[in-house]
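Please check the following for our workbook:

***
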Amino acid sequence: MAKTADLDLVEVAPTAKPPVCKIMDFGKFLYKQKKLDAKQKKASKAREVKGIRLSMRTDTGDLKIKANKAIEFLKDKNPVKVSMIMKGREMAHQDLGHEKMQEFAKMLTEHGEIEMNPKRQGHTLTMMFKPK
């Protein structure tokens, strides 16, 4: 029957009793399967952590611009790592750094939630956001 239809005879379930076969165009089947696999691979893109760097001297206008960029990352379902590097005498005023981080966090509350509160690691304050 497969030869008369100019198609292939494909064994679907070889372990079944009796074995199950199907008449189909095997080349077309492989093509569709490859397309389906590529589509699934594209859909399962791993999320990467995006980074935003702040400074103690970052003013409110620049802070808003950086917050908008972070909101874009959160809308794309990517987690955002906000880091503030303190240099020299800025280490003596870490409370100001925490305040600036909290101000930045308030700008992102609608689009993301804090995964990790501001944490000091050496000269760097780090905070993580995850998308809602």
User: Anything to note?
Assistant: The domain at 50-131 is CATH 3.30.110.10 (Translation Initiation Factor IF3). The chain has a mean pLDDT of 92. Residues 26-43 form the longest helix (18 residues).
